Amino acid sequence: MRNPRAFLRPLAVGAPKPSSDVPFRPSRMIHFFDPSNEKMAAKVPDIAMKVDIILGNLEDAVKTEKKEAARQGLVDIAKATDFGDTQLWTRVNSLDSPWVLDDIVTLVTEIGDKLDVIMVPKVEGPQDIHYVDRLLAQLEARAGLDRQILVHAILETAEGVANVEEIAAASPRMQGISLGPADLAASRRMKTTRVGGGHPGYLVRQDPTGEDLTAGRATYQQDLWHYTISRMVDACAMNDILPFYGPFGDIKDVVACEDQFRNAFLLGCVGAWSLHPVQIDIAKKVFSPSPEDVAHAKRVVEAMGDGSGAVMIDGKMEDDASCKQCLVMLDLAKSLAERDPELAAAYDL
Ligand SMILES: CC(=O)SCCNC(=O)CCNC(=O)[C@H](O)C(C)(C)COP(=O)(O)OP(=O)(O)OC[C@H]1O[C@@H](n2cnc3c(N)ncnc32)[C@H](O)[C@@H]1OP(=O)(O)O
Ligand SMILES: CC(=O)C(=O)O
Ligand SMILES: [Mg+2]
Fold it and tell me: What's the whole-model pTM score?
Protein backbone atom coordinates (compact mmCIF):
# COMPACT_ATOMS: atom_id res chain seq x y z
CA MET A 1 0.00 0.00 0.00
CA ARG A 2 1.25 3.50 -0.84
CA ASN A 3 2.25 5.99 1.83
CA PRO A 4 -0.86 8.25 2.00
CA ARG A 5 1.35 11.36 1.87
CA ALA A 6 2.75 10.16 -1.47
CA PHE A 7 -0.66 9.63 -3.03
CA LEU A 8 -0.67 13.02 -4.72
CA ARG A 9 2.96 12.95 -5.89
CA PRO A 10 3.60 12.49 -9.62
CA LEU A 11 4.69 8.95 -10.53
CA ALA A 12 7.41 10.14 -12.93
CA VAL A 13 9.86 13.02 -12.85
CA GLY A 14 8.37 15.92 -14.80
CA ALA A 15 4.83 14.48 -14.94
CA PRO A 16 1.91 16.78 -14.05
CA LYS A 17 0.87 16.83 -10.41
CA PRO A 18 -2.23 14.71 -9.67
CA SER A 19 -5.30 16.64 -8.66
CA SER A 20 -6.96 15.87 -5.32
CA ASP A 21 -10.46 15.94 -6.80
CA VAL A 22 -12.26 15.05 -10.02
CA PRO A 23 -13.87 18.22 -11.34
CA PHE A 24 -17.53 17.48 -12.15
CA ARG A 25 -18.27 18.07 -15.83
CA PRO A 26 -21.59 17.24 -17.51
CA SER A 27 -21.26 13.56 -18.44
CA ARG A 28 -24.75 12.40 -19.36
CA MET A 29 -23.63 10.30 -22.30
CA ILE A 30 -20.37 8.77 -23.46
CA HIS A 31 -20.91 8.46 -27.20
CA PHE A 32 -18.95 5.57 -28.76
CA PHE A 33 -17.63 5.60 -32.31
CA ASP A 34 -15.27 3.36 -34.22
CA PRO A 35 -12.49 5.55 -35.65
CA SER A 36 -11.75 2.92 -38.32
CA ASN A 37 -15.28 3.23 -39.70
CA GLU A 38 -15.14 6.08 -42.20
CA LYS A 39 -18.89 6.72 -42.21
CA MET A 40 -19.02 6.98 -38.44
CA ALA A 41 -15.85 9.00 -38.20
CA ALA A 42 -17.19 11.55 -40.68
CA LYS A 43 -20.07 12.25 -38.28
CA VAL A 44 -17.83 12.93 -35.28
CA PRO A 45 -17.45 16.72 -35.58
CA ASP A 46 -21.27 17.13 -35.68
CA ILE A 47 -22.01 14.55 -33.01
CA ALA A 48 -19.34 16.02 -30.72
CA MET A 49 -21.37 19.23 -30.55
CA LYS A 50 -24.43 17.30 -29.27
CA VAL A 51 -22.86 15.09 -26.60
CA ASP A 52 -21.07 15.62 -23.31
CA ILE A 53 -18.38 13.02 -24.05
CA ILE A 54 -17.22 11.56 -27.36
CA LEU A 55 -15.19 8.35 -27.18
CA GLY A 56 -13.01 6.79 -29.84
CA ASN A 57 -13.33 3.06 -29.22
CA LEU A 58 -10.34 0.82 -29.96
CA GLU A 59 -11.45 -2.33 -28.07
CA ASP A 60 -14.38 -4.73 -28.59
CA ALA A 61 -16.57 -3.92 -31.64
CA VAL A 62 -13.43 -3.00 -33.65
CA LYS A 63 -12.34 -5.86 -35.89
CA THR A 64 -8.88 -7.33 -35.25
CA GLU A 65 -7.59 -6.29 -38.68
CA LYS A 66 -8.80 -2.72 -38.01
CA LYS A 67 -7.07 -2.19 -34.65
CA GLU A 68 -4.19 -0.13 -36.08
CA ALA A 69 -6.49 1.82 -38.39
CA ALA A 70 -8.77 2.68 -35.46
CA ARG A 71 -5.83 3.96 -33.39
CA GLN A 72 -4.49 6.08 -36.25
CA GLY A 73 -8.02 7.21 -37.14
CA LEU A 74 -8.51 8.54 -33.62
CA VAL A 75 -5.20 10.43 -33.78
CA ASP A 76 -6.22 12.03 -37.10
CA ILE A 77 -9.72 12.96 -35.91
CA ALA A 78 -8.46 14.41 -32.64
CA LYS A 79 -5.88 16.55 -34.42
CA ALA A 80 -8.39 17.83 -36.97
CA THR A 81 -11.34 18.53 -34.66
CA ASP A 82 -12.10 21.32 -32.22
CA PHE A 83 -14.16 19.59 -29.54
CA GLY A 84 -15.06 22.78 -27.68
CA ASP A 85 -16.35 21.90 -24.19
CA THR A 86 -17.02 18.28 -25.16
CA GLN A 87 -14.71 15.80 -23.47
CA LEU A 88 -12.62 13.51 -25.67
CA TRP A 89 -12.14 9.99 -24.29
CA THR A 90 -10.80 6.75 -25.69
CA ARG A 91 -11.36 3.11 -24.76
CA VAL A 92 -8.02 1.34 -25.26
CA ASN A 93 -7.67 -2.39 -25.74
CA SER A 94 -7.58 -4.59 -22.64
CA LEU A 95 -4.35 -4.91 -20.64
CA ASP A 96 -3.86 -8.55 -21.70
CA SER A 97 -4.04 -7.70 -25.41
CA PRO A 98 -1.15 -7.18 -27.86
CA TRP A 99 -2.43 -3.70 -28.80
CA VAL A 100 -2.81 -1.81 -25.55
CA LEU A 101 0.80 -0.70 -25.13
CA ASP A 102 0.88 0.89 -28.58
CA ASP A 103 -2.58 2.37 -27.97
CA ILE A 104 -1.46 4.20 -24.84
CA VAL A 105 2.00 5.21 -26.11
CA THR A 106 0.65 6.52 -29.42
CA LEU A 107 -2.36 8.35 -28.04
CA VAL A 108 -0.57 10.09 -25.18
CA THR A 109 2.34 11.06 -27.39
CA GLU A 110 0.27 12.26 -30.35
CA ILE A 111 -2.92 13.67 -28.81
CA GLY A 112 -2.30 13.66 -25.04
CA ASP A 113 -3.07 17.39 -24.89
CA LYS A 114 -6.60 16.71 -26.21
CA LEU A 115 -7.47 13.50 -24.37
CA ASP A 116 -9.40 13.93 -21.13
CA VAL A 117 -9.88 10.32 -20.05
CA ILE A 118 -8.61 6.85 -20.98
CA MET A 119 -11.16 4.10 -20.37
CA VAL A 120 -9.53 0.81 -19.38
CA PRO A 121 -11.55 -2.36 -20.02
CA LYS A 122 -11.73 -5.51 -17.88
CA VAL A 123 -10.04 -3.99 -14.84
CA GLU A 124 -9.67 -6.75 -12.26
CA GLY A 125 -8.03 -4.98 -9.34
CA PRO A 126 -5.95 -1.98 -8.23
CA GLN A 127 -2.82 -3.51 -9.80
CA ASP A 128 -4.27 -2.82 -13.27
CA ILE A 129 -4.80 0.85 -12.41
CA HIS A 130 -1.29 1.12 -10.89
CA TYR A 131 0.23 -0.18 -14.13
CA VAL A 132 -1.65 2.35 -16.27
CA ASP A 133 -1.01 5.13 -13.74
CA ARG A 134 2.79 4.79 -13.86
CA LEU A 135 2.88 4.35 -17.62
CA LEU A 136 0.76 7.46 -18.15
CA ALA A 137 3.00 9.50 -15.83
CA GLN A 138 6.08 8.47 -17.82
CA LEU A 139 4.44 9.31 -21.13
CA GLU A 140 2.98 12.60 -19.90
CA ALA A 141 6.43 13.68 -18.70
CA ARG A 142 7.99 12.72 -22.02
CA ALA A 143 5.29 14.57 -23.98
CA GLY A 144 5.60 17.65 -21.75
CA LEU A 145 1.90 17.62 -20.83
CA ASP A 146 0.81 20.09 -18.16
CA ARG A 147 -2.34 18.29 -17.00
CA GLN A 148 -3.08 14.71 -16.08
CA ILE A 149 -5.05 12.36 -18.29
CA LEU A 150 -7.64 10.67 -16.07
CA VAL A 151 -8.54 6.97 -15.98
CA HIS A 152 -11.98 5.33 -16.14
CA ALA A 153 -12.39 1.61 -15.38
CA ILE A 154 -14.99 -0.76 -16.81
CA LEU A 155 -16.47 -3.13 -14.27
CA GLU A 156 -16.92 -6.25 -16.35
CA THR A 157 -15.35 -9.22 -14.60
CA ALA A 158 -16.36 -11.07 -11.45
CA GLU A 159 -12.93 -10.27 -9.99
CA GLY A 160 -13.35 -6.58 -10.81
CA VAL A 161 -16.69 -6.48 -8.98
CA ALA A 162 -15.13 -8.22 -5.97
CA ASN A 163 -12.39 -5.54 -5.93
CA VAL A 164 -14.43 -2.51 -6.95
CA GLU A 165 -13.71 -0.49 -3.80
CA GLU A 166 -9.93 -0.88 -4.23
CA ILE A 167 -10.18 -0.08 -7.94
CA ALA A 168 -12.05 3.16 -7.20
CA ALA A 169 -9.40 4.14 -4.64
CA ALA A 170 -6.35 3.00 -6.61
CA SER A 171 -5.15 6.37 -7.91
CA PRO A 172 -5.97 10.08 -7.87
CA ARG A 173 -6.27 9.60 -11.64
CA MET A 174 -9.48 7.60 -11.21
CA GLN A 175 -12.31 9.57 -12.83
CA GLY A 176 -15.08 6.99 -12.69
CA ILE A 177 -16.34 3.49 -13.39
CA SER A 178 -18.83 2.09 -15.93
CA LEU A 179 -20.82 -1.12 -15.70
CA GLY A 180 -19.92 -3.53 -18.52
CA PRO A 181 -22.92 -5.89 -18.50
CA ALA A 182 -21.93 -8.02 -21.51
CA ASP A 183 -18.46 -9.12 -20.46
CA LEU A 184 -19.60 -9.26 -16.85
CA ALA A 185 -22.44 -11.64 -17.74
CA ALA A 186 -19.93 -13.87 -19.55
CA SER A 187 -17.40 -13.70 -16.73
CA ARG A 188 -20.06 -14.66 -14.17
CA ARG A 189 -21.51 -17.33 -16.45
CA MET A 190 -24.89 -15.61 -16.27
CA LYS A 191 -27.34 -17.14 -18.76
CA THR A 192 -28.32 -14.03 -20.64
CA THR A 193 -27.11 -13.20 -24.12
CA ARG A 194 -28.32 -9.57 -24.01
CA VAL A 195 -26.08 -6.48 -23.77
CA GLY A 196 -27.54 -4.89 -20.63
CA GLY A 197 -31.21 -4.55 -19.78
CA GLY A 198 -33.53 -7.01 -18.10
CA HIS A 199 -34.56 -10.59 -18.85
CA PRO A 200 -38.12 -11.95 -18.82
CA GLY A 201 -36.97 -15.06 -16.96
CA TYR A 202 -35.60 -13.09 -14.01
CA LEU A 203 -38.79 -12.44 -12.07
CA VAL A 204 -40.77 -12.86 -8.90
CA ARG A 205 -44.30 -14.29 -8.89
CA GLN A 206 -47.27 -13.47 -6.73
CA ASP A 207 -48.24 -16.07 -4.14
CA PRO A 208 -50.94 -18.57 -5.22
CA THR A 209 -54.48 -17.71 -4.18
CA GLY A 210 -55.90 -21.28 -4.36
CA GLU A 211 -55.17 -24.85 -5.33
CA ASP A 212 -54.34 -23.98 -8.95
CA LEU A 213 -50.69 -22.84 -8.90
CA THR A 214 -50.96 -21.48 -12.44
CA ALA A 215 -54.04 -19.26 -12.02
CA GLY A 216 -54.05 -15.49 -11.57
CA ARG A 217 -50.49 -15.02 -10.40
CA ALA A 218 -48.88 -11.86 -11.74
CA THR A 219 -45.13 -11.88 -12.35
CA TYR A 220 -42.79 -8.91 -12.03
CA GLN A 221 -39.58 -8.72 -14.01
CA GLN A 222 -36.58 -7.83 -11.83
CA ASP A 223 -33.40 -5.88 -12.57
CA LEU A 224 -30.41 -8.16 -13.17
CA TRP A 225 -27.98 -5.27 -12.59
CA HIS A 226 -29.29 -3.75 -9.39
CA TYR A 227 -26.68 -5.27 -7.09
CA THR A 228 -23.70 -4.42 -9.28
CA ILE A 229 -24.80 -0.87 -10.04
CA SER A 230 -25.49 -0.19 -6.36
CA ARG A 231 -22.11 -1.56 -5.32
CA MET A 232 -20.36 0.45 -8.04
CA VAL A 233 -22.19 3.64 -7.00
CA ASP A 234 -21.11 3.19 -3.38
CA ALA A 235 -17.48 2.52 -4.36
CA CYS A 236 -17.49 5.65 -6.53
CA ALA A 237 -19.27 7.86 -4.00
CA MET A 238 -16.88 6.91 -1.19
CA ASN A 239 -13.97 7.92 -3.43
CA ASP A 240 -15.53 11.05 -4.97
CA ILE A 241 -15.47 9.64 -8.49
CA LEU A 242 -18.32 9.20 -11.00
CA PRO A 243 -20.40 6.06 -11.71
CA PHE A 244 -21.90 5.36 -15.16
CA TYR A 245 -24.26 2.75 -16.54
CA GLY A 246 -22.67 1.21 -19.67
CA PRO A 247 -24.22 0.04 -22.95
CA PHE A 248 -27.77 -0.95 -23.85
CA GLY A 249 -27.45 -3.19 -26.89
CA ASP A 250 -31.08 -3.35 -28.07
CA ILE A 251 -30.80 -0.18 -30.17
CA LYS A 252 -34.37 -0.48 -31.54
CA ASP A 253 -35.94 -0.76 -28.06
CA VAL A 254 -35.71 2.90 -27.14
CA VAL A 255 -38.35 2.44 -24.43
CA ALA A 256 -36.45 -0.19 -22.43
CA CYS A 257 -33.22 1.75 -22.99
CA GLU A 258 -34.80 4.77 -21.33
CA ASP A 259 -35.99 2.59 -18.42
CA GLN A 260 -32.53 1.08 -17.90
CA PHE A 261 -30.86 4.49 -18.04
CA ARG A 262 -33.42 5.93 -15.59
CA ASN A 263 -32.86 3.10 -13.08
CA ALA A 264 -29.15 3.95 -13.18
CA PHE A 265 -29.85 7.70 -12.82
CA LEU A 266 -32.09 7.12 -9.80
CA LEU A 267 -29.46 4.88 -8.19
CA GLY A 268 -26.77 7.59 -8.53
CA CYS A 269 -25.13 7.22 -11.96
CA VAL A 270 -24.26 10.43 -13.80
CA GLY A 271 -24.54 9.04 -17.35
CA ALA A 272 -24.59 6.05 -19.70
CA TRP A 273 -23.05 5.02 -23.00
CA SER A 274 -24.68 5.83 -26.34
CA LEU A 275 -23.79 3.27 -28.98
CA HIS A 276 -25.97 4.72 -31.72
CA PRO A 277 -27.11 8.31 -32.41
CA VAL A 278 -30.67 7.37 -31.36
CA GLN A 279 -29.48 6.83 -27.77
CA ILE A 280 -27.98 10.32 -27.36
CA ASP A 281 -31.26 12.12 -26.71
CA ILE A 282 -32.46 9.33 -24.43
CA ALA A 283 -29.41 9.83 -22.20
CA LYS A 284 -29.77 13.61 -22.35
CA LYS A 285 -33.41 13.38 -21.24
CA VAL A 286 -32.87 10.82 -18.50
CA PHE A 287 -29.68 12.18 -16.93
CA SER A 288 -30.92 15.79 -16.78
CA PRO A 289 -33.20 16.25 -13.75
CA SER A 290 -36.77 17.20 -14.67
CA PRO A 291 -37.70 20.90 -14.28
CA GLU A 292 -40.36 19.77 -11.75
CA ASP A 293 -37.78 18.03 -9.56
CA VAL A 294 -35.49 21.05 -9.78
CA ALA A 295 -38.32 23.45 -8.85
CA HIS A 296 -39.24 21.24 -5.87
CA ALA A 297 -35.59 21.07 -4.74
CA LYS A 298 -35.35 24.85 -4.95
CA ARG A 299 -38.48 25.28 -2.80
CA VAL A 300 -37.18 22.90 -0.15
CA VAL A 301 -33.73 24.53 0.01
CA GLU A 302 -35.28 28.00 0.27
CA ALA A 303 -37.72 26.89 2.96
CA MET A 304 -34.97 25.18 4.96
CA GLY A 305 -32.90 28.36 5.42
CA ASP A 306 -29.59 27.26 7.00
CA GLY A 307 -30.48 23.62 6.19
CA SER A 308 -31.39 22.56 9.75
CA GLY A 309 -34.72 21.80 11.40
CA ALA A 310 -37.91 20.48 9.81
CA VAL A 311 -40.65 22.03 7.66
CA MET A 312 -43.82 20.78 5.98
CA ILE A 313 -44.12 21.29 2.20
CA ASP A 314 -47.17 19.94 0.32
CA GLY A 315 -47.94 17.61 3.21
CA LYS A 316 -44.43 16.14 3.33
CA MET A 317 -41.80 16.46 6.02
CA GLU A 318 -38.49 17.98 4.89
CA ASP A 319 -35.42 18.13 7.10
CA ASP A 320 -31.61 18.33 7.01
CA ALA A 321 -31.34 15.04 5.11
CA SER A 322 -33.96 15.74 2.46
CA CYS A 323 -32.46 19.22 2.08
CA LYS A 324 -29.13 17.51 1.21
CA GLN A 325 -30.96 15.34 -1.36
CA CYS A 326 -32.36 18.52 -2.89
CA LEU A 327 -28.90 20.11 -2.97
CA VAL A 328 -27.62 17.11 -4.99
CA MET A 329 -30.40 17.78 -7.52
CA LEU A 330 -29.70 21.53 -7.62
CA ASP A 331 -25.91 21.13 -7.98
CA LEU A 332 -26.43 18.83 -10.96
CA ALA A 333 -29.02 21.14 -12.50
CA LYS A 334 -26.70 24.14 -12.16
CA SER A 335 -23.75 22.42 -13.79
CA LEU A 336 -25.93 21.14 -16.67
CA ALA A 337 -27.53 24.57 -17.13
CA GLU A 338 -24.08 26.11 -17.63
CA ARG A 339 -23.59 23.86 -20.65
CA ASP A 340 -27.13 23.71 -22.02
CA PRO A 341 -29.09 26.96 -22.63
CA GLU A 342 -32.40 25.05 -23.04
CA LEU A 343 -32.01 23.52 -19.60
CA ALA A 344 -30.93 26.86 -18.15
CA ALA A 345 -34.24 28.35 -19.34
CA ALA A 346 -36.28 25.35 -18.13
CA TYR A 347 -34.67 25.33 -14.66
CA ASP A 348 -34.77 29.10 -14.13
CA LEU A 349 -32.08 28.93 -11.43
C1 LIG B 1 -20.39 -4.36 -24.98
C2 LIG B 1 -19.60 -3.15 -25.52
O3 LIG B 1 -18.39 -3.15 -25.48
S4 LIG B 1 -20.50 -1.82 -26.07
C5 LIG B 1 -19.30 -0.76 -26.80
C6 LIG B 1 -18.78 -1.24 -28.13
N7 LIG B 1 -19.74 -1.16 -29.21
C8 LIG B 1 -19.82 -0.07 -29.97
O9 LIG B 1 -19.07 0.88 -29.81
C10 LIG B 1 -20.89 -0.08 -31.04
C11 LIG B 1 -21.04 1.30 -31.69
N12 LIG B 1 -22.14 1.30 -32.60
C13 LIG B 1 -22.12 0.65 -33.79
O14 LIG B 1 -21.14 0.02 -34.15
C15 LIG B 1 -23.33 0.80 -34.67
O16 LIG B 1 -24.22 1.76 -34.14
C17 LIG B 1 -24.14 -0.52 -34.89
C18 LIG B 1 -23.26 -1.62 -35.50
C19 LIG B 1 -24.70 -1.03 -33.57
C20 LIG B 1 -25.30 -0.21 -35.82
O21 LIG B 1 -24.77 0.41 -36.96
P22 LIG B 1 -25.64 0.53 -38.32
O23 LIG B 1 -26.14 -0.83 -38.70
O24 LIG B 1 -24.85 1.30 -39.31
O25 LIG B 1 -26.88 1.36 -37.77
P26 LIG B 1 -27.83 2.32 -38.61
O27 LIG B 1 -28.00 1.84 -40.01
O28 LIG B 1 -29.08 2.49 -37.81
O29 LIG B 1 -27.03 3.69 -38.59
C30 LIG B 1 -27.60 4.89 -39.06
C31 LIG B 1 -26.50 5.88 -39.32
O32 LIG B 1 -25.86 6.22 -38.08
C33 LIG B 1 -24.46 5.97 -38.16
N34 LIG B 1 -24.02 5.48 -36.86
C35 LIG B 1 -24.37 4.33 -36.25
N36 LIG B 1 -23.77 4.24 -35.05
C37 LIG B 1 -23.05 5.38 -34.90
C38 LIG B 1 -22.22 5.84 -33.85
N39 LIG B 1 -22.01 5.14 -32.74
N40 LIG B 1 -21.64 7.06 -34.02
C41 LIG B 1 -21.82 7.76 -35.15
N42 LIG B 1 -22.60 7.36 -36.18
C43 LIG B 1 -23.20 6.17 -36.05
C44 LIG B 1 -24.30 4.92 -39.24
O45 LIG B 1 -23.00 5.01 -39.81
C46 LIG B 1 -25.39 5.32 -40.22
O47 LIG B 1 -24.92 6.37 -41.03
P48 LIG B 1 -25.58 6.67 -42.50
O49 LIG B 1 -26.99 7.12 -42.25
O50 LIG B 1 -24.72 7.76 -43.06
O51 LIG B 1 -25.50 5.38 -43.26
C1 LIG C 1 -19.40 -2.35 -21.68
C2 LIG C 1 -18.71 -3.54 -22.04
O3 LIG C 1 -17.60 -3.52 -22.51
C4 LIG C 1 -19.39 -4.78 -21.81
O5 LIG C 1 -20.57 -4.77 -21.45
O6 LIG C 1 -18.74 -5.83 -21.96
MG1 LIG D 1 -16.69 -5.38 -22.53
Answer: 0.97
